[in-house]
Amino acid sequence: MSNEVMTKEKVDMDPKYIIKLTVTLFVTCVIVAGALGLVNMVTKDKIAAINWENTQNAMKAVVADPDNTEFEATDVTDAMSAAATDAGATLDSAYAVKAGGQDAGYAIKVVASGSQGNIEMMVGVDADGVVTGVSIVKNAETSGIGSKVMENQNGVLDQFQGKSAADGTLVVGSNVDAISGATVSTKGVTTGVNAALAVAGAIG
Amino acid sequence: MNFKKQFKEGLLTQNPVLVQVLGMCSTMAITTSFMNGLGMGVSVLLILTASNVVISAIRKIVPDKIRIAMFIVVIAGFVTCVDLLLQAFLPSVASSLGVFIPLIVVNCIILGRAEAFSYKNGVGASLVDGICQGIGYTVVLLIMCVVRELLGAGTFGGGLLGPDGKGIQILPSQFPAGMLTLPVGGFLVLGCLIAAMQWALSRPKKNKEESK
């Protein structure tokens, strides 16, 4: 019944009126899109520079010798993505680490789920497949609880240094210590580190 | 144009948060530190003012049937501009507000004012309305931020003042109730504020009735 009424109403509308509606909306969209294009042109490079600086800072935090290190973006292959997915996390990007011109492993950015959404983290892995550091890029963990893990309280992030694929899968409670009350957040980081080690294995 | 009346409406009698109860989602989510509240409040103020002016300027050529779609296009345009500008020039604010800046598109305050005010009034009045409602929103956000931050984390001015922009520690760190920085704390603080506001608004009426 209500459908019939709807159809009738549509037919009653003057075709000219429909065209007017369409044109008005279309023109508005074009104007707004043009304005956005202008703003984007002004801000694009700046945003890209800021993002790159943040990424670089995160990478510097996870390598042994930050001052003499350069980073080169590496292509993400299907094998690398699959390795991360198998370990329960998502590979975002990978960078080759060059210390004094020498290959010194990789900085791998992975995303794993924490207790309040995703945790983005950078994991440094040296040429021998040993973790050189973990730093959190972005998180939404509960302030005062999960944030303790993100802020590296009691060295919870430092404990991953020196771990490698030879230690087997890292598991909270057996070879990783959690912060009490923030087990889920610690597990999220552990999953990310496992995934990064798997990715490093898939590269080399 | 009655600036004084509109200002009083925006701040008190028609306050967007405390009386119209609009835009609750962002109010709950971001009022955990002073800088968050300030950044969000000012962003909304700018977007609201700009969209009010534009919508009131085009109100005569907007066909009635598609006005909501037109409003949303205009609002989304301004929100995206502010989002890009924040990311480029105030990256720390952009990262701490995160998704709540793009979400201003669907913030009821802006669409509400477009529909209720600027679609029916002139450009000048809409400009003033945008500024006044925006100030009303910002003030409430700041009050909530200060209360939640002080009682929840024991600091003042988080994101702006103090070492590492973490705020000045006022209460000793073992004292605060962390719960207040969680969403449940947002509901509690907002509930108290609305109650206080209703009490304050109903007082003059009661006095008049008694004197009669």
Detail the topology: elements first, then pairings:
The complex is a heterodimer of chains A (204) and B (212).
Chain A: H1 2-12, H2 15-60, E1 69-74, H3 78-86, E2 90-99, E3 102-113, E4 118-125, E5 131-138, H4 146-150, H5 183-203
Antiparallel strand pairs in A: 1-2, 2-3, 3-4, 4-5
Chain B: H1 3-13, H2 24-30, H3 34-58, H4 67-89, H5 91-97, H6 108-118, H7 123-153, E1 155-156, E2 168-169, H8 183-211
Antiparallel strand pairs in B: 1-2
Helix pairs in contact in B: 1-7, 3-4, 3-5, 3-6, 3-7, 4-5, 4-6, 6-7, 7-8
Give a short overview.
Chain A has helices spanning 2-12, 15-60, 78-86, 146-150, 183-203; strands spanning 69-74, 90-99, 102-113, 118-125, 131-138.
Which labels suit this protein?
heterodimer, A: 204 residues, alpha+beta, 2 domains, five-stranded antiparallel β-sheet, 45% helix, B: 212 residues, mainly alpha, two-stranded antiparallel sheet, 2% strand
How many domains is the backbone of chain A divided into? 2
Uncertain segments of chain B? none
The geometry of chain B reads as globular
Number of helices in the DSSP assignment of chain B:
8
Strand content of chain B: under 5%
According to DSSP, the number of beta strands of chain A is 5
Secondary structural class of chain A:
alpha+beta
The largest sheet of chain B, given as strand count, sense and whether it forms a barrel, is: 2 strands, antiparallel
Which percent band covers the strand fraction of chain A?
Answer: 15-25%
Radius of gyration of chain B: 18 Å
Helix-residue proportion of chain B: 55-70%
> What is the number of domains of chain B?
1
Query: What does the overall shape of chain A look like?
Result: elongated
Structure summary, number of beta strands of chain B: 2
Evaluate the radius of gyration of chain A.
Answer: 24 Å
Description:
The complex is a heterodimer of chains A (about 200) and B (about 210). The longest helix of chain A has about 45 residues, at about 15-60. The model of chain A has no long low-confidence stretch (mean pLDDT about 85). With about 200 residues, chain A is α+β, with helices and mostly antiparallel strands. In chain A, helix 3 (about 80-85) runs antiparallel to helix 5 (about 185-205). Chain A has helices at about 1-10, 15-60, 80-85, 145-150, 185-204, and strands at about 70-75, 90-100, 100-115, 120-125, 130-140. Chain B is an all-alpha fold and about 210 residues long. Chain B has helices spanning about 5-15, 25-30, 35-60, 65-90, 90-95, 110-120, 125-155, 185-210; strands at about 155, 170. In chain B, helix 1 packs parallel to helix 7 (about 125-155), helix 3 runs antiparallel to helix 4 (about 65-90) and helix 4 (about 65-90) crosses helix 5. The radius of gyration of chain B is 18 Å and the shape is globular. Chains A and B meet through helix 2 of A and helix 4 of B.
